[in-house]
Amino acid sequence: MTIYIAADHGGYKMKEMLKTYLLGKGERVEDMGPEAFNPADDYPDFSLSVAQAVAQDHGSLGILLCRSGQGVCIVANKVKGIRTTMAWNKEVAAEGRRDNHANILCLASDFLSDEEAKQIADAWLNEKPATEERHVRRVKKIEAIENNQ
Asked: Could you tell me which of 33, 75, 127, 145 has the fewest CB atoms within 10 Å of its CB?
């Protein structure tokens, strides 16, 4: 499984830290940018790249970062097949993956320490999507809404 990761300038430093952390754990990580800190970059560019990669690479996951986590989340959710979760602790992260089958995790770099970001990413990556009928039913309803627009 590939983990696609990207950030804008606001999340760049934390993205680099998380990428190094995940690679050190043996995860397969593909950095979708930016390659260097650029205070003039825009989060929609990087969010779209990750969302499209995750949508096309079945079984892959993504992690997006910006200052608030909200901008990257909004953009990624515009791509068919993407369900993001924005998490501020490991419990919310695990629930988003489990109950909502989220395939992209969005993090707010201005409000998380490096250690919190690691814990959140670990909790999210270690969780599996729920197979209980109620969760599967709800995800199917989300997909139906997406297909009718």
From this structure: 145
Q: Left (φ > 0), alpha (ψ -120 to 50) or beta: where does 59 sit?
A: left
Q: Which residues are catalytic?
A: 66
Per-chain mean pLDDT for the chain: 95
pTM: predicted TM-score of the whole model, two decimal places: 0.95
Q: Do the Cβ atoms of 82 and 109 come closer than 8 Å? A: no
Q: What are 100-127's pLDDT values in tens digits?
A: 999 999 999 999 999 999 999 999 999 9
- Residue 47: exposed, middle, or buried by beta-carbon count in 10 A (0-12, 13-18, 19+)? buried
User: Is residue 49 within 8 Å of residue 57, measured between CB atoms?
Assistant: no
CATH H-level superfamily of 2-147: Sugar-phosphate isomerase, RpiB/LacA/LacB (3.40.1400.10)
